[in-house]
Amino acid sequence: MAYIEPAPLLDKENPFEAMMTRFHTASQILGLEEEIYNVLKVPARQVIVSLPITMDDGSIRVFEGYRVIHSTILGPSKGGIRFDPHVNIDEVKALAAWMTWKCAVVDIPYGGAKGGVTCNPREMSAGEIERLMRAYTLAMIDIFGADKDIPAPDMGTGPREMAWLMDEYSRTQGMTVNAVVTGKPIVLGGSLGRTEATGRGVMVSALAAMEKLKINPYKATCAVQGFGNVGSWAARLLAERGLKVQAVSDLGGAYYNENGIDIEAAVRYRDANKGSLEGFKEAQRISGGDILTLPVDVLVPAATEDVITASNAGKIQAKLIVEGANGPTSSKADSVIYEKGISVVPDILANAGGVTVSYFEWVQNRLGYKWTADRVNRRSDRIMKDAFDNVYKTAVDYKVSLRIAAYMVAIDKVAKTYKYRGGF
Ligand code: NAD
224 near 199, Cβ under 8 Å? Predict the structure, then answer.
């Protein structure tokens, strides 16, 4: 298979450039008109706010918050909110564009957005996080809306923060608006199946890819980087489908056991240990970087971006990489991985199970109805499998990697919709 060389990068690869490199390549293969390329390459809207928060000790700290809406061509924009010390506008721009492509790949009627606050929630009390979340919501009150822009959790945020967001937003509207945000606790209109949805989609797309690669899940080994929502659920569900998960890691360390890690035990340990795997005794501690280069069949990066780079890609031994995280592979690593014959189920496909069930949550909120977990899982599994098959067929037809194929499917859909809707 011919590899189409990506566009040259700027000196320093930031997530937005990494996304643009793939966008550029896929657009070229599709023969996308320049006018539409120019529309899609820039975010539709970028908002930066300062959030002064009273800390528990009485001092006032000013946090910076962001919301980037990349596109509303397919529908209201959708995207999570990240609370992390490294959040910056470039990262949020890239993540917002990824949401556009992700929603388009799985064919759900949303555009793409992302939000974030530069903060370290691990060093903040629940009260400080609540005040920050409420302040962020008020600052974005004209942006958010059930038909406009619908946030969700991402790194560092979860159902608790989404409940505060829903409550703060609802207060300003004088009524309960649960469809303004997804990833809520079940009692507030959250969907059954949402918590595990992203990890479940990783599992479904991993199994679909393993079938094509003729890897028997019952004989396969796996390593999972990141043991938060996505990583721990992916590890748990892959183990349930027969894979031997030999290594898991988080910021508290990387842990390896040749005979397989008992994922339930690791989850219990993490939950009892302030959310960290640090000190997990049922496996041997290895260096954090080594988890990516272990001799396993399947590697699931499910932590953060830019962990597989040109410098370590050559050492990867896995046959299949399934990207639970957004942007874990730098664009400079793409060609190294492709030349090595490693298949990659790209982020915009592999982790789209989360936004799919977020969409189901929004649909249920608007219907005023609740689906069973079984219905949610069956429908999301079908969407993930159909999306995988569509991307796989495109990859075969155009002789490109699954990543470029996923971008092609997504860009084609958004471009066609844009043409029908028209512009100025
Ligand atoms: P999370 O905060 O629940 O977990 C993140 C995990 O990664 C934690 O275990 C953390 O310790 C670990 N981690 C962070 N940096 C690390 C590093 N350098 N090495 C090893 N471990 C590290 O976040 P999450 O919701 O699981 O999100 C993880 C990734 O998946 C992010 O890229 C996010 O954008 C993406 N994602 C999440 C969802 C979702 O539904 N939560 C959906 C799609 C994509």
Answer: no
pLDDT digits (tens, 9 = 90+) for 343-394: 999 999 999 999 999 999 999 999 999 999 999 999 999 999 999 999 999 9
Residues with CB under 6 A from ligand 1: 153-156, 198, 225-231, 249-251, 288, 302-304, 324-326, 351, 354
Instruction: Tell me the CA–centroid distance for residue 163 and ligand 1, in Å.
Output: 20
pLDDT of residue 422: 82
Q: Which of 154, 237, 211, 206 is nearest to 320 (CA)?
A: 206
- Identify the residue whose C-alpha is closest to ligand 1 atom 31: 325
From CA 260, how far away is CA 198, in angstroms rounded? 22
User: CATH classification of 197-350 is 3.90.190.20, yes or no?
Assistant: no
**Percent of the chain topping pLDDT 70:** 96
Which residue numbers are catalytic?
114
Query: What is this structure's pTM?
Result: 0.92
pLDDT band at 2 (very low <50, low <70, confident <90, very high): very low
CATH number belonging to the domain at 43-176, selected among 3.40.570.10, 3.30.360.10, 3.40.50.10860, 3.30.1380.10: 3.40.50.10860
